[in-house]
Sequence to fold (288 residues):
Amino acid sequence: MTSDYQGKTAVVTGGASGVGRCLCERFAREGMNVIMADVEADTLETEAAALREMGLNVVGIRADVTDPESMDQLAERSSAEFGNVHILCNNAGVGIKEAQRRMWTLTPNDWTWGFNVNVMGIANGVRAFVPAMLAHGEPGHVVNTSSGNGGLSSLPTTPIYASTKAAVTSMTEVLHYQFLQENAALQAHLLFPGPHLVNTRILSSMRNRPTELRDDNEPAAYNSMADLAKASGLKLQLTEPEEVAETCLQGIRDGQFWILPASERQDNRVNNRTQDILNRANPQLPEE
Fold:
């Protein structure tokens, strides 16, 4: 059976590891041409080669989502490799070394790096790719990776991360409305990886933090998502990135703006927040 996406082109930022790596493989298995974009050159080369060895059509291109010129070059090289882009996944994201720290102790560099990657990275991706996607007029999709933490309701443990993901939700809602105003053949989507903590290396994001934005070399509070779950008193149940990629593809197929796996815990937090807003009530600390 021929896939609806056979021969189409997808670009995935943060594509060399975690959810991004699995999105690249899943799209390629649908018969798509895939641009795997990442700032980690060595990992990028290794992972793109591994997918090609599987017979998948994947090209790795180093790109820094925080650099507008780098994203322009990514768009140019993507077009040169495969022509029109049909799916753009603004997936690159970082976790800031902020767990167990109060907001007022975080440095300007902490805020700058978090927003540069998680927010401006998406803005740069939209600016670099969407004009050409609109111009070629073919159906397409822009998928921005958010998080239930901040994107829907905020946890008190990660002020920068939650703030960036709240921004991603707002940006993507506006993008959705503007596509409608343009009568565009493009659709915006918000991807919420889950329903549980996703088993990625986001807690070791410091490996990619620019030297000029580093304030200390102290280790992060947690080394893995399993450590974080245990310390937070959560059930040790993790979602694997492969599951997120499958959920994302299905959400694109179904035309869902909110690509949001069912989660009673998350639904309760959203309901509580909504009721607080409607009742003009002060928020209470969320239950873990």
